[in-house]
Amino acid sequence: MNWPDLLNVSKNQTAGKARTSFDRDYDRIIFSHPFRKLQDKTQVHPLPEQDFVHNRLTHSLEVSSVGRSLGRLVGEQVLERSAGLKNHLNAHDFGVIVASASLAHDIGNPAFGHSGEEAISEYFITNSSLLESRFTEQQWNDLVKFEGNAQGYRLLNKSGYQGLRLTEPTLAAFTKYPRPSKVADSFKPRRSQKKYGFYASEQEVFSQMASTLNLKALSNHQWVRHPLAFLVEAADDICYHVIDLEDGCNLGLVAHDDTVELYAGVIGDRFDKKKLNNIKSKNEQISILRALAINELIEQSVALFLDNESGILEGDFDYSLTDVISAKDYLEEIKKVSVEKIYRCRTVLEIEAAGFTVIDGLLKAFVPSVISEQPSRHDKINYRLLPEDVKTEIGTTEDLYQKIRSLLDFISGLTDSSAMNLYRKITGISLPGRA
């Protein structure tokens, strides 16, 4: 693979423009309806009352900020090594591509975090005896393994959402897992093949994009990553590890001294305990250490990417950057502490359990209303409760898989609050006009 093809310079002539096609990608994402919904979707601590705990929106904005820095720093060096690219691109272009893809990286995640994904998958697994025979093997794999990354790729390419029409480099950078749900496992050790990145409904769209950018193919429907996807993944990993720990400390789930020690390991020689102790506010101490840790991880990730640039372009390097950088052991320790003390704390588990019940309840109500050849009166009432645009989309196709995909677009697109409200109404817990 080569940078001119990967960045589609023949189509995206950006040098010298005040607002490039890549800038337009960023603007379209941030003003899009699915992105705005992230403000009421669970990150780790669902429906928080504290204003310092992150939701999906604040997390995505922070990942985008880190991604922009990663992209610009890498872009500066790539342009120095490939002088011909300077006629078409600049470091800002690299930065905004990664920032845009990072901004959208969680756009396909349903309400209630990973429990929402699991609830959707579990519904179809539980009802396999009734439903599996009505779908192809590929389609069924999509349904029993709901994947937020594939859902995000679908939304970014779906004309119903104001037709975002993003550039191919941004869409490719967004795709951490360039493969469908059902493949042979011959490439499974590769990081990029750990999950899947597009549904059967978008397979042709992805194939055309891969052809345009000349992505290296591993098989008929599997490709190596676009190089900038490594930076998007790194930005997410950095924020996920470092900022979730800060939230955990602020909530009292992880002791202050333990948090300082974990951050100090990442920061290394730059950690100065004496300077830290001069800061009276413990929250400010943690905030400063978090910033230093992020900066250190950015520098290490950029250095590793540039050292392995040729292997990345050849498709030989296929690891998460944060799994290989020198701070990897400290990040692993942060992850271990976070799992034990943050992700499994009682309040998180209680809301996740409630979220699982809510999503499952919505599917039980609406899936039969969409797929039944002889719907009951109850099915018909539930169907009428769907938004008009969803009913229109479902009604324009006879393809059962496409009908289900449209329904899942609606259900997975609900925010935590809207999902809870709809569940209460259809189960009779809350009635119109009554408290």
Automatic annotation (TrEMBL):
Keywords: Hydrolase. Signal peptide: none annotated. SUPFAM superfamilies: HD-domain/PDEase-like (SSF109604). It comes from the Bacteria. SMART domains: HDc. The keyword Hydrolase applies. Residues 52-250 form the HD/PDEase domain. The keyword S-adenosyl-L-methionine does not apply. One of its GO terms (molecular function) is dGTPase activity. GO terms for biological process: dGTP catabolic process. This is dGTPase. It comes from Roseivirga spongicola.
